[in-house]
Amino acid sequence: MKRLFFLGTLACGALAAQTLSVDALVKALQQGGYVIVMRHASSPNTVPAGATERQLDEPGKAAATAMGKALRDLKIPIGEVYSSPTQRAMATAQLAQWTQVKPAAELGDNGQSMSGGTAAQAEWLQKRVAQSPKGTNVLLITHMPNLRGAFPAITNVADGEALIFGPGSTLAARVKIEDWGK
């Protein structure tokens, strides 16, 4: 049985190591009760000509599409989906084929890309991961500055990477976007 190494943590607390099998993680997510916080899929650091903000690149588009398919194939229920109102975050949700995505300014980049994020946004995100849903999972799509502000102990979050929080704001797993289909 394949095993993954995950870090468990309180939202702002000290890290503690744990080992969890892939099968155990999938079964837990199938039962619901988790808040999945992900960084939007891959996008270049530049704004393309004629656009007003960054867009997903081709690998980001493909990864978002594959992630959505993998979650459906794994029968992982996704209930509410909240996204930064930026085009790259909303496109991540749309390409994954989640319907009724709710834009949330609290997840946005405030028009500042990699230097955005406020204390109020960090606090909102910390409170949101503490609200474990029943029978389904909640998905939040945001940006690196918001993740860094809300969870300073969690570093190096890759484009499209998901932080999976369980009851008590415990970080149960980190899953890179390309690993959902594996």
General description of the model:
The protein has 182 residues and is of the alpha/beta class. The protein has helices at 22-31, 58-73, 87-95, 119-129, 144-150, and strands at residues 3-9, 15-21, 35-39, 78-83, 102-103, 137-142, 162-166, 170-175. A hairpin with a 3-residue loop joins β7 and β8. The chain is globular. It starts with a strand and ends in a 7-residue tail after the last strand.
> Could you tell me how far the N terminus lies from the C terminus, measured between alpha carbons in angstroms?
13 Å
As residue ranges, the low-confidence spans are 1-18
Please outline the major beta sheet: 6 strands, mixed
Helix content: 25-40%
Number of domains: 1
Structure summary, number of beta strands:
8
Short description:
The protein is an alpha/beta fold and 182 residues long. Helices cover 29% and strands 24% of the residues.
Which features does this protein show?
Rossmann fold; two-stranded antiparallel ribbon; six-stranded mixed beta sheet; single chain; 182 residues; 8 strands; globular; alpha/beta
Layout of strands and helices, then pairs:
Elements: E1 3-9, E2 15-21, H1 22-31, E3 35-39, H2 58-73, E4 78-83, H3 87-95, E5 102-103, H4 119-129, E6 137-142, H5 144-150, E7 162-166, E8 170-175
Helix pairs in contact: 2-3, 4-5
